[in-house]
Amino acid sequence: MQELSATYLFDPLCGWCYGASPMIERLRLAGVNARLLPTGLFSGAGAREMDASFAAYAWSNDQRIERLSGQPFSEDYRSKVLNKTGTLFDSGAATLAITAAGLADHRKRFDALRLIQHARYVTGLDITSVAVLADLLSAAGLGEAARLLTEESTALLEANRQLVAEGQNLFRRHGSNGVPALVIERNGHQRLLDASALFSSYDNLMAHLKAA
């Protein structure tokens, strides 16, 4: 697997990305060189305000994801995030926080994503809030990232813009129809992996990678 690398396209508000996280972590532990790229799918024009209809739709999807992946979606998340009046569905701030965490070491993006996903789907925190995100980063020993996020550092904003643009370009180039998406590269050749492989058995996923 030494010659194989993977780029994981995601959005921090994507429940399916949360569901795929354990499998991505297993790939990394197996020695696959993995990189995390945001797509900005649910920020900017893709953002919206939560309402009862969208909350019900999201919860229904989340229950399916939980059955397939084993990842928990708590009642705190349902009551404090989905069913809270005026909650935003906007991944812009969370994406910026993940970029901030990985400025010095891109692998820290995975740590920040895992932290933010747990905060939303298990603890029921509002990860559209910069203050909440900064507290999460600080508590995880990422104080410099928290400072850059709070100050909206010019360097951070530019790095984030570049990462999202790179993620969107890769997303379009491979004709992905959503996230999570995993682009496998071996010997200079790229291929989009069928996302369903992230929700099957680990052995099946490894078989897909070897065939890539």
Number of beta strands: 6
Regarding CATH, which class? Alpha Beta
Structural domains: how many? 1
The H-and-E topology, N to C, reads as EHEEHHEHHHHHEEH
Task: Describe the strand arrangement of the main beta sheet, using strand numbers.
Answer: 2-1-5-6
The overall average pLDDT, rounded, is: 95
| Residues in helices, as a percent range | 40-55%
Please give the count of helices. Answer: 9
Determine Rg (CA atoms, Å).
17 Å
Overall 3D shape: globular
What structural category arises from helix and sheet content? Answer: alpha+beta
Gap between N and C termini, in Å?
11 Å
The CATH topology label is: Glutaredoxin
CATH superfamily: Glutaredoxin
| Strand content bin | 5-15%
Q: Which stretches of 5+ consecutive residues score pLDDT under 50?
A: none
What key phrases describe this protein's structure?
9 helices, Glutaredoxin, 212 residues, four-stranded mixed sheet, single chain, two-stranded antiparallel ribbon, alpha+beta
Task: Describe this structure as you would to a colleague.
It comes from Rhizobium paranaense. GO terms for molecular function: oxidoreductase activity. Pfam families: DSBA. With 212 residues, the protein is an alpha+beta fold. The protein has a single domain (4-211), classed as 3-Layer(aba) Sandwich (Glutaredoxin). The chain has nine helices and six strands. The strands form two sheets. A four-stranded mixed beta sheet has the order 2-1-5-6. The chain starts with a strand and ends with a helix. The model has no long low-confidence stretch (mean pLDDT 95).
